[in-house]
Amino acid sequence: MNCEIGIFVSTRDLYFYQILKLQKEDKFAKCRQPEDPVKVNVQKEDTLKLRCGVENFSGSIFWKRGKIILSYGKEIFQDADRISIVDDLTIQIENVTLEDEAVYECQVPITSMQYFIDVTVTIPPSVEILRNTGERIVMLSDPLSIDCVGTGKPDPDITWTKNGGELPQNVDLDGTSLLISSVTDEDAGQYECTADNGVGVPVNDYIQVAVHYEPTAEIETDVIYSGPGHTLSIICMVEGSPTPDVSWFFNGNAITDFSGRTTRLSKVKSSKIQHELTIRPLIITDMGQYECLASNRYGQFNDAVNLTAIPKKVVITSEQVSEYSEAYRISWTVWSASQLVSNKILLRMINFTEPKEWQEINVPVEKTKFRGRGQKYDLTFDMTGLTADSTYEAMIQAENDYGYGEFSDVLIFETPKSDAPVNHQLQTTNGFALLRSFSTSFFGLCCVFLATGFPL
Q1: Distance CA 235, CA 306 (A)
Q2: Which residues contact 288 (CB under 8 A, 6 or more apart)?
Q3: pLDDT over 80 at 2, yes or no
Q4: pLDDT at 444
Q5: pLDDT above 50 for 436
Q6: What is the pLDDT of residues 149-198, one digit of tens each?
Q7: How is residue 192 annotated by DSSP?
Q8: GO biological process annotations for this chain's record (predicted)?
Q9: I need a surface site. Which of 10, 29, 35, 137 has the fewest CB within 10 A?
């Protein structure tokens, strides 16, 4: 940069034939050029105004773009449809193009005063997700790749989000591409690619990812215990994509008549839907197998539950060691949707050779005021005529008006040598409490004593 007053010697400008004179005060003219050219950014297609950094000067100046003279004073020599002179020191360029990016120079005639402005033309970002039809369908466990292309000047930075938040940990980024090696149902959602280069505002493109897979259906239990007059609700958890259609079957036949039956569904999480079949009131012919069938374009899946009016499985609650040498008080609980009629106890002595035959004991149940929702029974029974210092096993089955329920697990208990208090060390194996020593005494059951059981 040279800011001293001197003779203008540029041969390029010799065609200016007029004599240029500095006004009296112009001899004090000076430039304000910094050590480096002033840097100016302008967006493509915007309007650019450049002001020459010369102080204490009035008159005509030259404007150059690189080595090309654009103007002198008010006279325009290039792109007159876009370039104009605003005042003595200001030039204006409309509808800026990439070709306008250059170092501009303003120069005072007959002097060596020059002022440089480095103009960079910028372009706001644009972004596009390739092969974007609005939705990308990918099968469960398949890989997923989404490619995003951003343009602009300068080159934009590309960032990704999912559903407006951070990307899951199983997502990898390769340049501007998003990669998932094996998709899960939780990878479904909206993925957004954003381009930002500091020019204008960031822009984005998005794509909806749908993860498809064959359906599943699950009913939490295999058996439901209920009975006539009760209300039944069967809940079937269904999952699949696209959302499966659900059908209900009874004893292998599709349920088409919903008289006395209602169905409803509710979404319990992003991928699971709860379907509920309700029947009220139940009648005896409603007992049987109910099936929930889920189907979509990729297949079908079913689960089933048996509805029964019989009692639940008996749970024996008594100890494995009797207090008496020739008797044992057995206790158990059972739930039934209807009044219990009786209980069946199977009892036999066991030894190291072979077990004795099962002896059957029928224990009637005293009828009481029955609660309509079903109830739990707490029952006891005294078995006498047992052999001292012996080992027995027992199991119990409950009966109501609709049949016998499932037998309890086998209880193994021991009678002591005498009625004195005993403290046996028990050994647990396979869910049963076993005594460390067994007696080979012969089993002789002579009589039984009934202790009435009352429901809780």
Answers
A1: 13
A2: 250, 251, 306, 307
A3: no
A4: 35
A5: no
A6: 999 999 999 999 999 999 999 999 999 999 999 999 999 999 999 999 99
A7: E
A8: homophilic cell adhesion via plasma membrane adhesion molecules; synapse organization
A9: 35
Quick one: DSSP state of residue 353? S
Q: Give, in order, the Cα–Cα distances in Å from 227 to each of 65, 122, 224, 239, 333.
A: 96, 79, 10, 30, 19
Hey, which of 41-55, 345-359, 415-429 has the most confident mean pLDDT?
Answer: 41-55
Residue 111's pLDDT band (cuts 50, 70, 90) = confident
The residue whose two tokens read 């050029």 is 33
Measured distance CA(144)–CA(120) in Å, rounded = 39
Cα 288 to Cα 276: distance, rounded to the nearest angstrom: 17
Lowest mean pLDDT among 138-147, 180-189, 271-280, 322-331: 271-280
Q: Among all chains, which residue has been given the structure tokens 């379907």? A: 275
Q: Token digits for 55?
A: 């102080």
| Burial tier of 30 (Cβ tally within 10 Å: 0-12, 13-18, 19+) | middle
Rounded CA separation 441/10 (Å): 133
Task: Give the distance, in angstroms, between the CA of residue 308 and the centroid of all CA atoms in the same chain.
Answer: 37
CA distance 280 to 123: 69
CA distances from 161 to 189, 190, 206, 230, 353 (A): 10, 8, 9, 51, 73
3-state secondary structure 333-349: EEEECCCEEEEEEEEEE
First to last CA, the chain: 106
